[in-house]
Amino acid sequence: MKYQQKEPLFSISVTAKITGISPRVLRSYEEAELLSPYRTEGNTRLYSQGDVQRIRVIYYLHKEREVNLPGIKIILGLLSPHFHEDASSDEPVVKNKAADDLIHKIREVAPDLLSGTFKE
DNA sequence: GTTCTGACA
DNA sequence: TGTCAGAA
After folding, report:
1. How far is residue A86's CA from residue A106's CA, in Å, rounded to a whole number?
2. Architecture of domain A1-67
3. Model pTM?
4. d(CA A78, C1' C7) / Å
5. Which of A14, A28, A44, A111 is at 20 to 30 A from A102, Cα to Cα?
């Protein structure tokens, strides 16, 4: 045999079919930087099974929770821990950089919001 | 025939 | 978000 992809890839029409989401919306998700499907040499999108699962999460947030696309991007970012090596430790440290950055920004614009002194 | 981008309502 | 145009 020649070779085979371990991972099935789907065209946008097939992906639309199995997710129930129109190609137009799938493209809008990519435009909002919520997805990065593979591209063929001819620039045609190819979605992986992982992409399909991510699309289902995006759609849930989008339609059921009514989160707009920029908001979904932030949420997905918070769900992706940032891995880095801590030189002073033997064990790899798992740190959620996106969450830390957001907290730092909140403290910047509202210093007391996340402290115990904040009331109301 | 399918998909892509850009555009309009 | 649906739909259309023009190109690949």
Report:
1. 25
2. Orthogonal Bundle (1.10)
3. 0.84
4. 40
5. A28
